[in-house]
Specification:
Elements: E1 3-7, E2 10-13, E3 18-25, E4 33-39, E5 46-54, E6 57-62, E7 70-75, E8 80-85, E9 94-101, E10 109-110, E11 114-119
Parallel strand pairs: 2-11
Antiparallel strand pairs: 1-3, 3-8, 4-5, 4-9, 5-6, 7-8, 9-10, 9-11
Amino acid sequence: QVQLVQSGGGSVQAGDSLRLSCTISGGASTGYVMAWFRQPPGKQREFVADETLSSDGAWRNYADSVRGRFAISRDNTKNTMYLQMNSLLPEDTAVYSCAAGPSRSQLNYWGQGTRVTVSS
């Protein structure tokens, strides 16, 4: 059974950086589209970034709100995906969840979520 286990997160000041990790077990990370979502307090879950592997390389998509500040990547030797978050803003405060699946519309597996709090 595929499972995603997240690590990282915490409380930081605006302008700081954090890196979230998401390790997949029960399957090879190369076989999945992997993504990050977040749910700010009192709001709906929203897309952050995703990465699809193809024969041409990796395709990455970002939400406008994080493009240029966040970077998604993966280390397939460790079956782990990362979200590097730089220049954090208070509005980045949310519970961040990783997800994986056979396509962007079929993200069947989810991590447990990790809280990121950014103070001004």
